[in-house]
Amino acid sequence: MFGKGILKGLAQTGKQVVSKRLTEKYPEEKPHLPERWRGNTFALEKDKCISCGLCAMSCPNKVIRQKFDKDEDGKKICTEFVMERQYCLFCGLCVEACPKGCLHLTHDFETAVYSAADVPQDLLADNHLDAAISKYGEKPPLVKPVIPPKPAAAAPAAAKPAAEDAKGGEA
Amino acid sequence: MSENGNAYSERYTLNLGPQHPSTHGVLRIVADFDGETCISADPVIGYLHRGMEKLLESRTYPQGLPYTDRLDYLAGVNNNLPLALAVEKLLGVEIPERASLLRMLTCEIMRLASYMVGIGIYIMDLGAVSGVFYPFQQREYALEVMSALCGARMTQGYIRFGGVQADWNDEAEAALDVLYKELPPFIEMYHKLIDENEIFLRRTKGVGVITAERAKSYALTGPNLRASGVDYDLRRDAPYCLYDRFTIKVPVQQAGDCHARYAQRMLEVEEILKLIKAIHAALKETEPGKIMGAVPKMLRPPAGEAYAQTENPKGIMGCLVASDGKGVNPLRVHFRRPSFDNIAIFSELMPGHKVADLIAIIASFDIVLGEIDG
Amino acid sequence: MTNNEVKTKAQVAAAMTKIAGVAAIEGTDCEYTVEASALIQAAEYLLGAGYEFLADITAVDYLAAGHFRLLYQIANYHNGDIITLKLDIPREAAEADSLCGVYAAANWLEREVYDMFGIKFAGHPDLRRILMWDGYEGWPLRKDFVQQPNKYQGRRRLD
Is residue C39 part of a domain? Predict the structure, then answer.
């Protein structure tokens, strides 16, 4: 019978009509975001930032605009830290490049603004740490190998791992 | 009416213009028609040309990786891989086993996602719009795995020089289990939906026939080549990463027409699922943690040229990297894009077909314009 | 084509070095430098030896050394052997023979090299720009191509 294949196909779509809907009813139901999900905004832990500029150097698109200065003690501080999000690929290379792990991406995606001037994010004005921080780019904790102390020099060797453990805890 | 009673047919030029819902992107085909039969076709590309090769010459090697995702944007990680393999060839660095397995697993998952788009959009271009929603739901399950693993659904930037960016985690494991559960019933349902549909068969059987000899001369690759009877798949015949550890069954069709290209992709979807399960099982046997090889912070590969090829969802993608030995930027990066070579055959294939057949031919090739234009 | 019709790299090396103008590159078993006059002969030999897959034609601009290097990656449909042909041409007279008579894939690949570098291929049936539009001035991938901000070649807004 001509049309048998079409009817067989219609039976399949018919089954779909009566089966459970898979549509997420946004905005009443928010989507489930995995913990490593990369969103549209950044967060900066200002007190951990050492103003090294590695994040800006690793960015493919020159998204990060930074200015540095020396404060009273001669230490390097950051006087301007703006993420030009209109150029950003949200690749996360900056988050991974940070040696202190103080730059983060967040889970924000509802970031539409009314003016183009609001798109660049000034992280010194608002470090945005109240947002849901993404676990993207988190380095796994360093596991120091336990070296058994040599039997002859047991006393100084026992003191050394204790000092190294203290350094490992800070990093 | 002419003297013998037949209708006149007019010769005209039709612009299947860059703005078109069925050209898979901004592809333009300038075709001359006699009535409804095509007499010449000339694809015009470059509407999505972003100068990626020139751009990569002014970025360092790691900065260039996120750009490569945008070539075949439907399968992000698959494009990082040839660049990574070519640079690692120049550097001579060894990749840890777990990193290789993760690369293969993510590439196969995104291959599945890309095939879902290819098949779904093919059916939609022929007019059966309901045939696009079900593959896209399966694509959602695949993208959930990538989202749980590296935080991004489409352009992941997951593969790095020396390994991968992040290790497998529990959320990705749970998302992969969902994919295992949902994909087999979908495949069965989709076969029942499309395979015997008379309209589909009338529109695709015998349309756009490519013989094996023409396919080889035009350097067709991927499912388009295998649908024309040439049994060649880089994962089995020229294994890279750790593909030589797995038995990869490669289906081949002989007809070379649009229907064969559809049947080929549906058969390959089942093989991809088997391969994902095998790679996942092998991944679980390796120890977690070692996902990066010993690669210096500032990559300065020694002078030379290296070319690496991988089997991408659209065909064989190759990457040529030329380094001058001194700088942190590459001297030249060139991508051999499969869709670019695939559509060169259009000017020979399309004449003789009707207007609607042109759409069927373009759709059956599963092209992506990001890749064609670079 | 059955497997025993594809010559091995060693057999190819033995035959290729006999062609005048083709020299094997030391340290590799599948890379050859070709002179411009030997290109078509080498390609025809490779096609007959079972290497039917013209994977890639591309060029590298060695500005400091003053020449372009054309790279041909020719593979086969059975295993992973890729024969690389390297052809150096001077920047002032950037021309080479077209492989369109040997491989049909060379058509679009050579058009892309012409569009990006300005290298002309003698014998190409339809040598015109492919990625940039007809009428674009300049060869973008050359190292001395500078994007001049005042000389924007697109359509200009009139406001």
Answer: yes
Low-confidence spans in chain A with pLDDT less than 70 = 140-146, 152-171
B233 inside domain: yes
Instruction: Return the CA Rg of chain A.
Output: 26
For A75, B116, B121, B139, B148, the CA distances from B136, given in Å and listed in that order, are 54, 6, 9, 5, 18
Q: Is residue C36 part of a domain?
A: yes
For residue C59, tell me if it sits in a domain.
yes
Q: Are residues A106 and A148 in the same domain?
A: no
Asked if the model's pLDDT at residue B2 lies above 60, the reply is no
Residues A100 and A44 both lie in one domain: yes
Residue of B nearest to A57 (CA): B63
Chains that touch A (3 or more CB pairs under 8 A): B
ipTM: 0.92
Distances (CA, A) of B70 to A89, B152, B157, B372: 10, 13, 10, 11
**Cβ within 8 Å, pair B199-A4:** no
- pTM of structure: 0.91
The pLDDT tens digits for B62-116 are: 999 999 999 999 999 999 999 999 999 999 999 999 999 999 999 999 999 999 9
Give the separation between CA C127 and CA C135, rounded to whole angstroms: 14
Chain A residues near residue B79 by CB distance under 8 angstroms: none
C140 contact residues in B (CB cutoff 8 A): 51, 54
B215 touches chain C (CB under 8 A): no
- Quick check: is C76 in a domain? yes
Closest Cβ–Cβ partner in B45, B54, B218 for C104: B218
Domain that holds residue B229: 60-373
- Chains C and B are touching, with contact defined as 3 or more CB–CB pairs separated by less than 8 Å: yes
Chains contacting C (3 or more CB pairs within 8 Å): B
Question: Using a CB-CB distance cutoff of 8 angstroms, which residues of chain A are in contact with residue B62?
Answer: 58, 93
- pLDDT tens readout for residues B202-257: 999 999 999 999 999 999 999 999 999 999 999 999 999 999 999 999 999 999 99
| Chain A: closest CA distance from residue B140 (Å) | 11
Kindly state whether residues A150 and A83 are assigned to the same domain.
no
Q: Do C55 and B336 touch (CB under 8 A)?
A: yes
Q: How many domains does chain A have?
A: 2
Cβ pair C79:B238 closer than 8 A:
yes
- C141, C117 Cβ separation under 8 angstroms: yes
Q: Which domain holds residue A163?
A: 141-171
Domain hosting residue C41, numbered range: 3-122
- For residue C122, give how far its alpha carbon lies from the nearest alpha carbon of chain B (Å): 20
In the three-class reduction of DSSP (H, G, I as helix; E, B as strand; rest coil), residue B101 is classed as helix
B43 located within any domain: no
For tokens 């975001």, name the residue.
Answer: A33
B305 touching chain C per CB within 8 A: yes
Same domain, A67 and A98: yes
Distance CA B198, CA B265 (A): 19
Distance CA A169, CA A160 (A): 15
Angle between helices B170-194 and B258-284 (to 10 degrees): 160
Instruction: Give chain C's domain count.
Output: 1
| CATH number for position C37 | 3.30.460.80
pLDDT at A163: 41
CATH at B339: 1.10.645.10
